[in-house]
Design a protein that fits this description.
The protein is 35% helix and 14% strand. The protein has 327 residues and is an alpha/beta fold.
Length: 327
């Protein structure tokens, strides 16, 4: 199978690309920056927002669009490819859903309204609506040749967001760990490697439809997630302390400081999506504990510094002392 991927060298796309190559397919990557990654693939150094004319005389069996953030990008790609790109699989997000979604909701659950025409900036407020616009246009342009994947928080090696990596590294250090808010808050994640190999199987089977890429089945909680991280990598004597959410926000903390924390977000119920449709087509995630161990092994080989805004160890100690003084 000949696969065209728009993107493919950063994180999510990197794992899809690796899966496609490992599974024996010919791969063409469209991206902007020269790289030594994935030398087995063909690399076309293009800006997707520029001239895509080089694609007009080529043909592929499937196209994976990892990097579409605006509907105009979907339109310009279709203008260059027409039907010569084969099945079109676009990476969307569970952020498309409107709250509140009932636990175990499926892919037919109501979404937010599409982004207003002319939206040019990706923000927390526009991200979901832009993904809705992208999904709608993809289905309009490709019809039965359109496939939409809606991931939750994606984890795994090379995760530049370091949202889950933060917890793996912090828990592996041991001691008293500040855990945010309510341990009963729902959460779901998906390992990028499992999502990547499943996506390639969707392409191999020419599978149409819309699918949640989420794990575990709901309801899985943030407390259970951190308990799995502790069980997988924590030194003896590691403990979790859960200051109240309102106290944490009063200290100026948010989901940047403590990644994956809901922090009172009304959209938190989207972390209860039903993965049944994806599982029926072959999605089979590894255990969370296995992901944790492998992510820690990766960070040992490729150390990851804290992202801007994430909680430093010094600030964590200060907050824990302050919480114990008032609790």
């Amino acid at each position: 199978m000949r696969v065209l991927m728009i993107g493919g060298t950063r994180f999510v796309g990197r794992h899809i690309a690796r899966a496609a190559l490992t599974m024996g397919h010919e791969l063409t990557l469209v991206h902007r920056t020269p790289t030594d990654l994935l030398p087995e693939a063909e690399h076309l150094l293009l800006d997707r927002d520029g001239d895509l004319g080089v694609l007009r005389d080529r043909e592929w069996d499937a196209t994976v669009d990892v990097s579409a953030y605006f509907p105009g990008q979907v339109a310009s790609l279709h203008d260059a490819l027409g039907d010569r790109g084969g099945r079109n699989l676009v990476i969307s997000s569970t952020s498309v859903y409107a709250p509140p979604a009932a636990p175990g909701f499926d892919e037919s659950s109501p979404t937010v309204a599409p982004a207003p025409e002319g939206t040019t900036e990706v923000t927390e407020e526009t991200y979901g609506p832009l993904k809705v616009s992208i999904e709608l246009l993809s289905r309009e342009l490709y019809g039965e040749r359109s496939t939409v994947v809606r991931p939750t928080y994606v984890i795994g090696p090379w995760d530049y967001t370091q949202r889950f990596t933060y917890w793996v590294q912090r828990v592996a250090e041991g001691g008293e760990v500040l855990a945010p808010g309510d341990p009963g808050d729902p959460i779901q994640v998906i390992d990028a490697r499992d999502m990547g190999s499943w996506i390639v199987r969707l392409l191999e089977g020419d599978v149409a439809g819309t699918f949640h890429a989420v794990s575990p089945p709901p309801v899985f909680t943030f407390g259970e997630l951190l308990a799995d991280v502790v069980a997988a990598v924590a030194p003896a004597g590691t403990t979790l302390t859960w200051p109240a959410a309102d106290w944490l926000t009063a200290q100026g903390l948010d989901d940047t400081s403590l990644p994956l924390w809901g922090a009172g977000d009304p959209w938190i119920a989207v972390n209860t999506a039903d993965p049944a449709a994806a599982r029926a087509t072959g999605l089979s995630p590894r255990t969370l504990r296995q992901s944790v161990v492998e992510i820690l092994e990766h960070t040992v080989r490729h150390p990851a510094a804290l992202r801007p805004g994430q909680l430093t160890r010094e600030r964590e100690r200060e907050l824990l002392a302050a919480w114990h003084a008032v609790s």
